[in-house]
Amino acid sequence: MKRRHLTLLANALVLLLLYGIGGVYFKNFLTLRVFVNLLGDNAFMGIAAIGMTFVIISGGIDLSVASVIAFTSIFIAQTVHDGLHPWWAMAMALCLGWLFGATQGWLISFFELPPFLVTLSGMFFARGMGYIVNDVSLAIKHGVYSQTIRNLAIPLAKNVRLPFTAQCFILFILAGTFLLAFTRFGRYIYAIGSNEASARLMGVPVHRMKILIYALSGFCAAASGCVVTFYMQSGNSSSFVGLEMDAIASAVIGGTLLSGGVGGVPGTFLGAIILGLIQALISFHGNLNNWWAKIFIGILLFLFISIQQLLSRRLRAAR
Amino acid sequence: MTRIAAIAVFWTCLLAVLYLLRRQRNVAFWPLLALSAILLFNLFFTPHFYNLEMRGGHLYGVPIDIINHASKVAVLSLGMTLVIGAGGIDLSVGAVMAIAGATMAHLNIEAGMAPGYCILAALATGLLAGMWNGFLVAIMEIPPMVATIILMVSGRGVAQLITSGQIINFNNPVLNFIGNGFILIPFPFILTLVVFGVTYGVTRGTALGFMIEAVGDNEVAARRAGLSAKTIKFLVYVFAGLCAAVAGLVHTSNIRSADANNIGLYLELDAIMAVVIGGTAMTGGRLYLASSVIGAILIQALTTTMYAKDVSPVVAPVPKALVILAVCLLQSERVRRYLADRPNRAQGRGNE
Predict the structure, then answer these.
(1) How big is the A-B interface in CB pairs under 8 Å?
(2) What is the model's pTM?
(3) Which residues, numbered 270 to 289 in chain A, qualify as contacts with chain B under a Cβ-Cβ cut-off of 8 Å?
């Protein structure tokens, strides 16, 4: 209990520190507008990271999310282009994402295959399928995209509106937090991640749970793909290569242990926002190069992992 | 006629090797069988696939191309085999390749150093990266996947820092030779054979291989038996870093430029795939070096065949995914049990 709060606290401190740096060096950094943009710009990565959190807590990993996002975006773009209504296209994409994840989960659980390899092949598969749908970037031209989504933005202050992408992100954070912390489903995930054998002995339906967990991750990735189409107004089958690593990094910085059993959605949210802030700071600065972001994210990862390692060692020693 | 005779001799040898491997229940049987299937397909459906030519003392032909291009992943997979055999995983090798390549090009072009020193320095960066991973895993006891993600994420940033975000082109006969040279067969493949020979000699000629397997199988038991699990884990990561540096040199030299963004991108996944296709389980405890190299060649043969058959490069990931999945399924306990329990079939002792 205490440990979870400690990592969250450390996250919040880093977040405040980064915000402080931004506030000191750049004017207008501490405005509501920047924060709202931060939410909107990182919505798709964050939503994928929430699905990833579920998987990682259960002791697995899902490398396929970036490809599923790309597939979903091009799938929606293509079907809308072919005359399907966007909402139907999205519903179909979400179903496909769910099914794709469920299949991965079934392979992992039924054949006892390592999640790393199954989702790795899932990554190649989804990427290839995306290219088969269409291998060029496709703009989405439809009233839903040009009008409805824009009208759904909630005005917060003068000239500041909470975009629909950010609303989706907040919705997923709330739903994910609830699902993981307050339901039996969530408890089961922690149980499987802590010790699969004892979870099975306690009567947790491990097989069914694993299918559901990966299905959930596939669903989140597909939802993230939908958000991408709102954000980009287009679909592209070759984009977001490597996004799964950002999602994993968000979860790990947020205090989710890759060995399973520990973590939470609020932490992942903070992790995603920290990654977004680093990018924002670098783009605000204008002269700093993109590689500093990578190096800085690596340093942050190292710091957070070390803190957790020390904490868990102390816990083990205390026992 | 000589060509047909040569092909016949080749296939006879291949079948004989396959038969022997099967009788010995050698793990290399499965990847070699898959490779033979691809070669068989090409025998019938790809004209000129088996045409080998001597031009200016060099061998040319599609099979030569395959082993040439498979070299990078093969070298990576040798290091990865030891890491996975010791119960770990190294996700950073692709980024380490970029660092090594960037170091080599930077020192040669910007600092004007002699090629020999550039190569040594690049190998040193690989060692350093491996030591960092080894420190995190063995000393800090961070789970390998987490520990190596750190360098995977930031390593490419470091490489870009070295090249200042530029693509550094170079043209030096020695440096060009690493990736493009020929001594009858392509130099990268000779390099692979050398690395393989050294790795095999060190692990199988001494007890080191057994020690690595012992640590991968059960670390606590290995420690109780008097092995220094920490040292062994540290060493395998250092070795993987070194292998990554060699692969990085080959890749950089091959394209005659250091492109920090793209050198070795996703090759860590290919290397892991090669190792797993080779039969080394990701849970650790066993290592099969030759089998991993065959796995690497298999992946490249698949890719080359798809290009030869005009399969669009963008669709290529799908068959790749299906192959990984098929190999994983073959290695799954449940499928093995099903195959073993079939009637009229001798009870298998597992593939050793």
Answers:
(1) 130
(2) 0.88
(3) 289
Q: Kindly report the average pLDDT of chain B as a whole number.
A: 89
Residue B349 has a pLDDT of 45
Confidence of residue B351 (pLDDT cuts 50, 70, 90): very low
Q: Which helix (H) or strand (E) holds A88?
A: helix A86-110
Q: Do B272 and A116 touch (CB under 8 A)?
A: yes
* Residues lower than pLDDT 50 in chain A: none
pLDDT digits (tens, 9 = 90+) for B28-68: 888 898 899 889 998 888 888 888 888 877 888 888 999 99
Question: Using CA atoms, how far apart are residues B246 and B130, in angstroms rounded to an integer?
Answer: 13
Contact residues, chain B to chain A, C-beta under 8 Å: 89, 140-143, 145-147, 149-158, 160-161, 165, 260, 269, 272-273, 276, 282-283, 312, 314-318, 320-322, 324-325, 328-329, 332-335
Asked if the Cβ–Cβ distance from A127 to B142 is below 8 Å, we say no
Q: Using alpha carbons, select from A51, A93, A39, A104 the residue that is nearest to residue A220.
A: A51
- Regarding an ipTM greater than 0.85, the answer is no
CB < 8 Å to A295, chain B: 154, 157-158, 161
- Domains, chain A: 2-314 (1.10.3470)
Q: Residue A26: what pLDDT?
A: 85
Question: Under a CB-based contact definition with an 8 Å cutoff, are residues A197 and A95 in contact?
Answer: no
SS (HEC) of chain B: CHHHHHHHHHHHHHHHHHHHHHHCCCCCHHHHHHHHHHHHHHHHHCCCCCCCEEECCEEECHHHHHHHHHHHHHHHHHHHHHHHHCCCCCCCHHHHHHHHHHHHHHHHHCCCCCHHHHHHHHHHHHHHHHHHHHHHHHHCCCCHHHHHHHHHHHHHHHHHHHHCCCCEECCCHHHHHHHHCEECEEHHHHHHHHHHHHHHHHHHCCCHHHHHHHHHHCHHHHHHCCCCHHHHHHHHHHHHHHHHHHHHHHHHHHHCEECCCCCCCCHHHHHHHHHHHCCCCCCCCCCCHHHHHHHHHHHHHHHHHHHHCCCCCCCCHHHHHHHHHHHHHHHCHHHHHHHHHCCCCCCCCCCC
Q: Does A249 touch chain B (CB under 8 A)?
A: yes
Give the per-residue pLDDT at A319: 57
Contact A125 B322 (CB under 8 A): yes
Cβ separation B324–A120 shorter than 8 A: yes
Q: Most A CBs within 10 Å: which of B140, B149, B268, as the mutation test of the A interface?
A: B149
pLDDT higher than 50, residue B148: yes
Q: Residue B332 — very low, low, confident or very high, per pLDDT cuts 50/70/90?
A: confident
